Amino acid sequence: MTRSASAGVSVVVAVAVGVLLLQPCRAFFGSTTPQPMTDPAAGERCFCQLKGAVDDCPCSVETIDSFNNFKIYPRLNSLLEQNFFRYWKVNLLKKCPFWEDDSKCAIRYCSVQPCTDVPEGLKGRAADPNINKAKKLKESLGSGGCDEENDLGFLNTTLSKESLDGFQKWAIHDSAQDSFCYLDDDKPENSEYVDLLLNPERYTGYAGPSAHRIWRSIYQENCFKPSRTLGPYVDFSNIGADEFVKDLCLEKRAFYRAVSGLHSSINIHLCARYLLSDSNGFEVSAEGVWGHNVDEFHRRFDPELTGGEGPKRLKNLYFLYTLELRALAKAAPYLESQEFFTGNEEEDRDVKKAVMDLLSVTKNFPNHFDESSMFTGGKQAAKLKEEFREHFRNISRIMDCVGCDKCRLWGKLQITGLGTALKILFSGNFDHPVDQQLNLSAVRQTNFQLSREEIVALFNAFGRLSRSILELENFRKKSHR
User: Fold this and answer.
1) How far apart are CA 117 and CA 198, in angstroms?
2) Cα angle at 70 between 298 and 60, to 5 degrees?
3) Cα–Cα distance measured from residue 247 to residue 439, given in angstroms and rounded to the nearest whole number
4) Is residue 459 within 8 Å of 351, Cβ to Cβ?
5) In angstroms, rounded to a whole number, what is the distance separating the alpha carbons of residues 418 and 255?
6) What are the b/e assignments for 262-271, b being 16+ CB within 10 Å?
7) Distance between CA 133 and CA 121 in Å, rounded?
8) Are 253 and 38 in contact (CB under 8 A)?
9) Would residue 346 be called left, alpha or beta, if left means φ above 0 and alpha means ψ between -120 and 50 degrees?
10) How far apart, in whole angstroms, are the C-alpha atoms of residue 316 and residue 389?
């Protein structure tokens, strides 16, 4: 083979790998203005298979579309604009633990603006109603009361201080053990608040070896692989094909479909908020012009351009939606007990009412994901569950290797949200001695503890999935014009 022919083959291979990985922050050099659609049938190909039953779920695409677009999305979208949910504390300066990375964003819109005006209630929780409950209990116990930070007495005042301290340490330890992702520490010098509304997820131009390596590491090194030998050249970013997935057990299929669904959701967001123009007339626009890029959506999901995988990846989005929806419904007793405190009493009251309303709707979904069928069967199941957890924890660490700040922000948030959902679904067992001792029905039903960052990530991650499903309807309409 001549040198020029060899180079040509290398280019083809590189392009093929890029298409298979469907990198979520993809750069197109030259004009970012989308060209007219060259294949009107592409829209039909993307959506003709997106109907009927969702794999490993007792529900259909049509049921989820209707439930989400008319009941969930309007409530959730309004809720996520409130202060409690719009500010998220995150460390974007963590060093990648796996490789050195010096990648740069291709355009100026990928930077993250730190928040300078955070509600006082989020900085210090001195006026938190939950802390006030502890103070009142301490006063009622007199001089023998417990310290505030170790006080669980308001749950059961018949327990001794030593028992309460021990139980809380036990609960914190168990909660950390049950976590499916590594959380940022809470030290001010390492983390800062970000206003999610001012830093929306959208196209950034992040591409090249760094973006390829992120998704390649997630799929090839952290997704479960079929037990049978598939040959040395199989790209596991394309593992969604039926002949591969059918070789996986339910738990491993669920892991892959959750990751693939998240990947699809991210791609939909970037296609829906694509940089259509960086100028406004003769002057450069400070914000740019953003909107739906239908051609880019087809490039990512047309079955003819994705080896038949595009529609399957869209169905995986629906699988992930049902998983996180079930987590919210299961966590309802715990979340209904929270105060959603920011320091603004009127707003906090309104937010709690809105959360209660949303949770009541989630509980009424007719065909919830059934997590009880997973991780059953004794020691082997426990070993699989721990392997499942470690794979996902590793993915959460990979998020610190993303070279684009805005991509890293939203990647960390959505992985944390999914990890929180998995924690809710698969934490512990409901016969924990602490639950028996405290004898609280809500505690028995929610055998976990969630930080504010986990709660905010949980709601915002589900909000991203909800928006993605709504955007699919927008792309369906635009594709058929």
Assistant:
1) 12
2) 60
3) 43
4) no
5) 11
6) bbbbbbbbbb
7) 17
8) no
9) alpha
10) 20
Q: CA angle, 226 as apex, 223 and 228 as ends, to 5°?
A: 150
Which residues are paired to 291 by β-bridges? 274
Where does the pLDDT of residue 123 fall: very low under 50, low under 70, confident under 90, or very high at 90 and above?
A: confident
How far apart (Å, rounded) are the C-alpha atoms in residues 222 and 348? Answer: 40
In eight-state DSSP terms, residue 60 is: B
- Strand 192-195 relative to strand 274-280: parallel, antiparallel, unpaired? unpaired
Alpha-carbon gap, residue 175 to 443, rounded angstroms:
13
| Three-state secondary structure call for residue 21 | helix
Which amino acid is present at 480?
Answer: H
**Please, are residues 71 and 374 in contact by the beta-carbon 8 Å criterion?**
no
Per DSSP, the three-state class of 213 is: helix
Q: Which of 101-105, 124-128, 249-253, 421-425 has the lowest mean pLDDT?
A: 124-128
Cβ neighbours of residue 151 closer than 8 Å, sequence gap 6 or more: 134, 137, 138, 145, 164
Cα-only R_g, the chain: 24
Residue 412 to residue 392: CA distance in whole angstroms: 12
Token reading at 296: 């880019």
Band of the pLDDT at 191, cuts 50, 70, 90?
confident
Q: Cα–chain-centroid distance for residue 108?
A: 25
Neighbours of 58 (CB within 10 A): 13
**Which two tokens mark 118?**
């955070």
- Return the pLDDT at 124: 61
Q: What SS3 state is found at 87? A: strand
Contact indicator for 424, 221 with CB cutoff of 8 Å? no
State the Cα–Cα distance between residues 80 and 120, nearest whole angstrom.
19
Rank 210-219, 285-294, 405-414 by mean pLDDT and report only the highest: 405-414
- State yes or no: pLDDT of 480 exceeds 50: yes
- Token readout for 100 is 């050195």
